[in-house]
Amino acid sequence: FIPESEMPTDELAAYDRMYLDHGMTATWDGSVSILAASVVGGGTTVNWMTSIPVQPAVRTEWAGADGIDGIDGREFDDDLAVIEREIGVQAPPNLPAKDAAILRGATALGWEAAETRRNGVGCSDCGSCSFGCRRGAKQGGLRVHLADAWRNGARVVPDARVERVIIAGRRAAGVEARLADGRTLTIRAPQVVLAAGALRTPGILERSGVRHPAVGRFLRLHPVAVIGAFMRDDVTMWSGTTQAARSLEWLEPRTPDGSGFVVESAPGHPGLIGLAFPWESTAGFLEIMNRVRQIAPLIAIVRDTGPGGRVRSTGSGGVRIDYRMGPVETATLRRGLVELARLGRAAGALDLVALGTPPAWYRPSGGPDTQERTFAAYVERLATFDFAPNRGMVFSAHQMGTARMGADPSDHVVDERGRVRSDGRGTVVPGLYVRDGSLFPTAIGVNPMITIMVLARRVARTVVAEA
Hints:
alpha+beta
């Protein structure tokens, strides 16, 4: 727990104190770099506040293929309206240069694009959302829902690692946790709600004796590809509203071998930029960092639809994350790079770089005809960009799906109302529930925060009804 007044003001302290594995979480083979929160308030304490609900097509899919009643109708709509009101979802207060570039390029290309609604009140200039919010402007779990719970008698115990749920007489009876000083904390309770996120909830279920075959499986990461667009004027991506524009132009698949993606900006600070951008030589890297204020970071967030990955506990008490992109994800990442390059050029970028090892550069020279041929060749190269492990740079800030909600007891760990199944035959553990991103039956293709909150509200009704 970090009080708002004491939240970090620099990257190193923020990643060290507020992120899982000090900001160094990755898949087992290192091919996907993962940002996940490890702080009271979870992802809502450090995220960029983008509030895009799950799209109607995905809700229809969840209602049909996964049998989740009410998800495609008024029940979901009503919950969404309440959540948006509670966390103050509204239009951005300003449009920083990096986001103006998205709208400018989208207009030139005839794409759908709009300002991004977000859960921030009274903020416009800071740009440090990923370090928490000293101003208290971010209306996340820490300031809204946890604060409301505390006012109604809830107690927050920070620095307590939950080892297992206590199951006695085949029902939940409390939790056992390890405190920072090594002592064991045991809490007895007739109901237990897990919300440790898609990367940690499965491990707790496993250690608690839940033997459902789908625990930890169906991991979705929303793999992200990046284009750095070097603009003529300063962009200063780390200043102002973190994310103020997006394009859903490509969210629905256009080809049988691809999925969809959403286009956004990435308000990195110089340390994260230094980590993410390619190293080709000392001189080359120095040139990038000398021009860092001119970079408009464009990202394609892919809806992964393949078999997904897996999270499982290791013998040493850690967690192993296995994830390998399939042909659909690879094809969509490549299409994302192509369209990001077109967007950046339409917005007025001088140079472009696709992040990877090696990177792919576009540095125009000569007259208009020569530049057109050079760009056409660049697009062809991006269409075959190497996304083998540790080649194309792939990031993830959204983790979903490792304790899926749904009607089929064989491959949905949690039933339609949030109750945990102990096995693949449908046996429910009374008093045990899940309320986090691991509930998602599939990836949703957009930022998951507000949809997680809606599902949490849905499960809360079950918890109250069964208290």
